[in-house]
Amino acid sequence: MKILFITSNRLGDAVISTGVLRALQARYPSALFTVVCGPVAAGLFEPDPRCERVITMEKRRHDRHWLDLWRECVRTRWFMVIDLRGSLLSLTLRTRRRLIVRGGRRDGRKIEQLGQALGRRQTPMPRVWVSDEQDASARVLLPDGKWLALGPTANWDGKIWPPERFVALAEGLRAQGLRPVLFYGPGEAEKERARPVLDALPDALDLGGNRALGEVAALLRRCAFFVGNDSGLMHLAAAAGTPTLGLFGPSRMSEYAPSGQNAFAISAPGPEGEAALTDLPASDVLNVARAILDGKAEAFRT
């Protein structure tokens, strides 16, 4: 029994979709899954033992990446095709059943939208997969301790809380015994965005860069707390079960707040979609962070 699962190119949306994949795996315990996603999200699914294959879809001119994907999939007779991209490709494949989620903005959280579109009564919470090797590596890189994970980068500058406020937050949480460790994505642009925080916190561990997503998830699990901008890393931290505080400005917290058992969010003042993270004081985030650590932040739980 083979199931094709087409999910997002972007890491954050791909993490959100893992709850749907887990629900399908529970419903069809003998099925093997082929996952289609973008290159940045491929490492999210590779450690999954139920994932027979990961197909990375790199964009090409004139949408030729969809033709490439059709060639990869057309010879297989699928038991089910789940397409979270709403593509026409799903209508051309041989399958007993297909579930296609159309795009477009809707009200409510993205994770709830997916659950409703697929007929789930309960919201399918995200999860992460970690190999034994990745878990062992994380234990070496991040020994036992009270680690404060910081995610000071994002895919565009408007979603980035000022670096000096991440520094102030880290200094303010030292009283709780938390030592900072920085995470960010691959590439020089990501490291340059994180550099002001790294330079200002010389005792912080630098665990950013080109790491497998399973290893990043294993590292995040070893942290006592995560604070970061609205990003794929924020969603990964929440899915890993790390207490997570997401920081929102011009992006929509009502749709993209982190999801998990210990997920929280705070938004800059102002209308949603127009608020500026420069208007979110470090003192406000520090107060919410302390409340989360003390178990008194239900108002900020997502």
UniProtKB/TrEMBL annotation:
Keywords: Glycosyltransferase, Transferase. Transmembrane segments: none annotated. It comes from the Bacteria. This is Lipopolysaccharide heptosyltransferase. It comes from Gluconobacter frateurii NRIC 0228.
